[in-house]
Write a structure and sequence with these properties.
The chain is of the alpha+beta class. It has seven helices and four strands; from the N terminus they run ααααβααβββα. The protein is elongated.
Length: 159
Amino acid sequence: MTVDSAGAPAEERVRAVVEAHRADRGALLPILHDIQAEFGHIDQRTVAVLATELNISRADVHGVVSFYTDFRSEPAGAATVRLCRAEACRAVGAERLVTQVEQVFGVPVGQTTPDGSVTLEQVFCLGNCALGPAAQINGRLYGRLDEGRLMDLLAEGHA
């Protein structure tokens, strides 16, 4: 298992997160959110530790991690671009934007570029319907995007 920023083995840190939530009802989701926030992803070794600590199967933990799109099993790229594919954005060119961005980065939505610079994700509404096509770049919302503006935002360091 990896080492965290304080130099402690990550397994110990995972157990500490579990301990902080042990008395909580339905503790798995808050635990996963805390681990994701701290480590950036939830790898298979973490799944095994959580299963042991919570006395549930690895399949149960993995099922939750794989079901919710906010959890990832591998580290994200330096920039995470979440492209809206809901109807309002589709009506104003979101699908064209998705196709262009996939071509520019050479990876389909749901993957990270080989150099780790960008992770492309899809969402089905960012609540920015009047300003579509919309996307989130590292949690910040942008509207009225086309390929050029999206690439400019990434180049300008908005990522």
